[in-house]
Amino acid sequence: MTSNALVKALDAPARWEQLDAVTGPVQRVWRGLPLGRFRDVLHGLPIGHPLHPALVQVPMGAWLSAAVLDTVPGTARGARLLVGVGVLAAAPAAWSGWVDWAEQHDDQRRTGLVHAASIAVAIGLYARSWVHRGRGSTARGKLLGYAGLTAAGAGAMLGGHLAFRQGAGPNKTEPVPRLVEEGWHHVGGVEDFPVGVAVRRELGEVPLLVVRQPGGEIHVLAGRCSHQSGPLTEGAIADGCVTCPWHGSVFRLADGANVAGPATAPQPSFRVRVEGDGSVYVRLPYAG
Question: In terms of pTM, does the model score above 0.85?
Fold first, then answer.
């Protein structure tokens, strides 16, 4: 398969609209699970980036190591142990992946569903491999293991495609510091910002969320959510925070800190200066 054909094959699941009949109900199930604050842990909020890519290293590493041991005489016991470790470690990795998947766009969910199906096949094959190895059918166990590694490899390819080509995981606000020129920028007058109302302004290519608090303090954040670029200016303002209307991420207006996921990166927050005539200027904290 040529490189161009491979890319087309990896792109294809995003266009399979027939998968929506499955993704919709599955999404509702995962969104409806009473996970509480543990949902944010699975998203990766405590570590500042998605948890799923870190967790998948354990099963993939175990299975790859088992495949290597399967080529070395006298290592059958160690190979079986690694196969079992991979199967067990796949569970938390899958949970973190599913909670992320439930907060993605339609095309991303389609690719993600095929990715999950590939990994599910891999887990099933490795589970059977572990059983056969325990019964002394080492040759069959090895064949099942190599088949599982093939399925896992295909799933990993789709996962990488989903994360990097379709942009399912990266911080969407990371480019903001490179899109905003240094210095102070005029965004309007105090009277342009009603108290407690989310107001949209443009700073070059960067949309801004401007909110004036009841005490008169003005807070300014980048206007597109770091999770999936949702329009924060259309979000609810309450308790000093803004909630993204797309997936429910909550950011503190005072400093952009993400209070609740699925976003794992904070919103860029701007310094604000109000002149004597009521003119409002903003700049990034480290700008000149």
Answer: yes
